[in-house]
Amino acid sequence: MESGKAYWQNDHWIIYPDTPPNLEHVSTINDGSVSNVPVHYEMIDPRQARPRQRALFFALIGDIHNWSGEPTEWLKEYFYTEYTIKTAGNEISLANDTTNTVSDATKLIQEVIDFIFEFNVPVNEAYPLLPKDENYFQYECIKHRQCLICGKRADIDHIDEIGAGRNRTHLNHTKFRLAALCRTHHTERHKIGNQLFCQKYRLTNLGIRVDAQTLKRIGVQGNYEQ
Q: Which of 151, 127, 148, 167 is nearest to 206 (CA)?
């Protein structure tokens, strides 16, 4: 399904695709069944791309320039081209008169963030602008064990209380909200509490649930068969 409309009704979503799905193909990839098929959906934000997104994009580009030495204009065009490739031909611009949406700009910025985490690019000017309130960025920080607040090497902090004395290697950590925080910010969170911590660092939420595969890959031992 390329696009469609969604409606909230009786505590669940009803999604109507613009074109009917190929049920033969659905059956082929779902062990012969057309029921209980896992799907991916995305909520589109149709507003014009925001000035803050433009500022973040070019601040990130500046940090990559300082790290790599590549001209900023070349880097901009590189990520614009990556966006076009990943979206099957769509174009993007963050100029003041852009027709691209908030969702378009978010996809572009995610491409840049992926690059920064993959190549361990030092982020200085852009760090205060990074979307720390978005689950995507929190997930990337956990995956790379990079502090959500300052970018330093981090431990995986349980935001939900797990109880004193419990053996963490016996826990199913997918059931708890987690965050990547360095020792300094971990200690601060416990000292001032989650609410003041979020206010201080302008977080709209703290902690996300992470899949077992990612947790195993980064070395968080637990009982994931529960």
A: 148
DSSP string, the chain: ---EEEEEETTEEEEEESS---HHHHHHHTTT-SSS----------SBPPHHHHHHHHHHHHHHHHHH---HHHHHHHHHHHHHHHTTT-----STT---BHHHHHHHHHHHHHHHHHHT---SSSGGGS-TTSHHHHHHHHHTTB-TTT-SB-EEEESS---TT--GGGS-GGGS-EEEE-HHHHHHHHHH-HHHHHHHTT-S---B---HHHHHHTT----TT-
Q: Residue 104 corresponds to which amino acid?
A: D
Question: Distance (Å, rounded) from C-alpha 168 to C-alpha 221?
Answer: 7
- Sign for the CA dihedral angle at 152, 153, 159, 164 comes to negative
Instruction: Write out pLDDT tens, residues 110-125.
Output: 999 999 988 988 888 7
- C-alpha separations of 143 from 110, 179, 215 in Å: 15, 10, 8
Dist CA 55 CA 126 (whole Å):
9
Vertex 113, ends 82 and 67: CA angle to 5°? Answer: 95
Between CA 7 and CA 215 the distance in angstroms is 34
Mean pLDDT to the nearest integer, 118-139: 82
Q: Where are the domains of the chain?
A: 1-41, 51-128, 139-217
* Chain segment 140-176, per-residue pLDDT in tens: 999 899 999 988 899 999 888 766 556 667 778 888 8
- Whether residue 35 is predicted with pLDDT greater than 60 in this model: the reply is yes
**Whether residue 2 has pLDDT greater than 80:** no
